[in-house]
Amino acid sequence: MEKPVSRRIRPRKSYIEKDDLLRFMIKEEVDLVLPLIEGGETGKITRNAFTEWVLLVEEIDLLTTKFLKLDNEKVFYPNATLISKPISNYYRSPDMGDPLYTKR
């Protein structure tokens, strides 16, 4: 089982650097994502800024995908935008299904 992202970053640092991100992302992804994270332009990202940037997928619809931030803010992205962005799934959900009940 993979370690969570926060555990792959070297301990006892007050900020996250590009080299830390390269431990679990490819260079192209880091170059694309770094400017989107608060502090990325300086190359020193606080753990709080990184945590705020990480979004959880709550729902995927035909036209939009709904992400849930850690502060419970819901962020909607058009799927047309997301199709051109790298998306990683670090925690795969178990196979889910709906039970089928029949009357006898």
TrEMBL record:
<dbReference type="InterPro" id="IPR006685">
    <property type="entry name" value="MscS_channel_2nd"/>
</dbReference>
<dbReference type="GO" id="GO:0006820">
    <property type="term" value="P:monoatomic anion transport"/>
</dbReference>
<keyword id="KW-1133">Transmembrane helix</keyword>
<protein>
    <recommendedName>
        <fullName>Mechanosensitive ion channel MscS domain-containing protein</fullName>
    </recommendedName>
</protein>
<feature type="domain" description="Mechanosensitive ion channel MscS">
    <location>
        <begin position="57"/>
        <end position="91"/>
    </location>
</feature>
<dbReference type="GO" id="GO:0050982">
    <property type="term" value="P:detection of mechanical stimulus"/>
</dbReference>
<keyword id="KW-0472">Membrane</keyword>
<comment type="similarity">
    <text>Belongs to the MscS (TC 1.A.23) family.</text>
</comment>
<keyword id="KW-0812">Transmembrane</keyword>
<dbReference type="InterPro" id="IPR023408">
    <property type="entry name" value="MscS_beta-dom_sf"/>
</dbReference>
<dbReference type="GO" id="GO:0005886">
    <property type="term" value="C:plasma membrane"/>
</dbReference>
<keyword id="KW-0407">Ion channel</keyword>
<keyword id="KW-0813">Transport</keyword>
<dbReference type="InterPro" id="IPR010920">
    <property type="entry name" value="LSM_dom_sf"/>
</dbReference>
<keyword id="KW-0406">Ion transport</keyword>
<dbReference type="Pfam" id="PF00924">
    <property type="entry name" value="MS_channel_2nd"/>
</dbReference>
<dbReference type="GO" id="GO:0008381">
    <property type="term" value="F:mechanosensitive monoatomic ion channel activity"/>
</dbReference>
<dbReference type="InterPro" id="IPR016688">
    <property type="entry name" value="MscS-like_plants/fungi"/>
</dbReference>
